[in-house]
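A quick aside before the break. I want you to see a complete sequence-to-structure record at least once, exactly as it would be stored in a machine-readable document. Don't worry about memorizing anything.
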Amino acid sequence: MTFAPKAASMKGDGQLTIDNVQLTIKHVPQRMCVACRERADKSELIRIGEGRGAYVHDNPDCIITAIKKQSFNRALRGKMNILNTIGLCKRAGKLITGYDAVVADIKKAAGV
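That is the input. The structure line, written in tokens, reads:
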């Protein structure tokens, strides 16, 4: 058995009517990741910067790529500050904080 609507219409304000049943289609804002250049829902990305912002996926690969390529400086027109960079490195798992954690990581790298 298949469903075939008798009448369907779409208005410019996101209202869809099928057989006199009105549905609202919500607009989901899209943004582009500065690292991989893929579009994604705004809610799936991290926003960096004040005023003119830049967006990046919440995964270590995109964050590291964006920092290495200086994508944030380009997107923010040179406004990336050190606190944003530190926060992103921590979120990517590439920043170790605290004396004991740093000493343990140095010993691990040295094979001690």
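Two observations worth writing down. Residues 35 and 68 are 9 Å apart (CA to CA). Strands lie at 8-10, 15-18, 21-24, 30-32, 39-41, 45-48, 54-57. We'll return to this after the break.
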